[in-house]
Amino acid sequence: MKELVEIIRAYEEAKLNDIQTVLATVVHVDGSSYRRPGARMLVLESGLMIGAISGGCLEGDALKKALLTFSDKTTRLITYDTINEDDVSVGIQLGCEGIIQVLFEYIDYTNHNNPIELFKTACAKRQKAVAVSLFDLQNKKNPLMGTSSLLIEKNKLVSNLTNDINTLINEQALQVLSAGYSRFTQIKIGENVLEVFLDYIQPAISIIIVGAGNDAIPLTQMSDILGWEVKVVDGRNTHAKKERFISACQVLVSKPEKVLEQIDVEDRTCFVLMTHNYQYDLQILKALIPLNVPYIGLLDRKSTRLNSSHTDISRM
Q1: Distance of CA 32 to CAs 64, 82, 91, 94, Å?
Q2: What is the mean pLDDT of the chain?
Q3: Which of 21, 19, 104, 14 is nearest to 58 (CA)?
């Protein structure tokens, strides 16, 4: 999710300055590779690349393909065969043994449902979503190829495709939302069979750090590196100051009984209680327990040890 957020941020700046962009997406891997399907990279016409589609081995050739895409403003599918170490298009000694399909899409700023606008919608709503990318292994310039649709939980499919195709895709996307993981399928359109990559997207983890002491500062920094949304809450206005924390962090001054009135608690929200004030932490904990929060972390001290249910945050 962090990579996607950075791509969206770069896209917004490029759009504001009328700089052309191309989105490169790994849509299929047969064998092994450094990045899996769903890895994305935004290429600006200046040559700047945000994100990655490999461990650094494919990016050089990907830049060349992106420059071609700038010139013809089309969508193309490129196959990288990393099994063949003599393949000069991807270099040698990559350490991978796979065939990687990468979709290159010119981003049309006039299309309000272009791929990155779809991702913006998914991120803004903080709901689970499925992004749908079509590609054709036989006709690698098929005009139907591209990241064309998005299904957001509890909402209808947003799509650039016809109703007939949407009907086929919608059923598959609903299955992906229910299962909670990405998958591949095929659809037949006339005489053509298109491959479909249904990419399951979850909102970023939202971490609420209750406590604005000095030990909370590195935790906010680490959380930001991981791409999590960060909020810091404390009852002390001397500690809960915006300038003490990363710029992306929201800082709240609140009494413990008012904290949850200011925060949306979702199934991707976790809490770390570290005010060093036993009564403050205890009040927050009592309010959280009925909400079935997936993760609650506590500062531990034997004399005031509290028991709570924990979920491995890395699995959220």
Answers
A1: 23, 9, 16, 11
A2: 87
A3: 104
DSSP 304: G
Contacts (Cβ under 8 Å, ≥6 apart) of 114: 107, 108
Distance CA 184, CA 202 (A): 18
> What is the phi/psi pair of residue 239, to 5°?
-105, -40
Angle at 234 between CA 232 and CA 235, to 5 degrees: 160
Q: Which two tokens stand for residue 207?
A: 């971490």
Question: How many CB atoms sit inside 10 A of residue 219's CB?
Answer: 18
pLDDT level of residue 92 (50, 70, 90 thresholds): very low
The model's pLDDT over 94-128, given as tens digits with 9 standing for 90+, comes to 556 778 999 999 999 999 999 999 999 888 888 89
Q: What's the predicted TM-score (pTM) here?
A: 0.82
Rg (CA), the chain: 23
CB 10 within 8 A of CB 50: yes
Work out the burial of residue 11: count CB atoms within 10 Å of its CB; fewer than 13 is exposed, 13-18 middle, 19 or more buried.
buried
Report the candidate in 203, 170, 174, 199 with the shortest Cα–Cα distance to residue 184. Answer: 199
What residue type is assigned to position 10 of the chain? A
* pLDDT score, position 96: 62
Is residue 42 scored above 80 in pLDDT? yes
> What is the distance between the alpha carbons of residues 291 and 282, in angstroms, rounded to a whole number?
15
Structure tokens at 238: 């001397």
Supply 138's token pair. 């036989």
Question: What is the Cα 174 distance to its own chain's centre?
Answer: 19
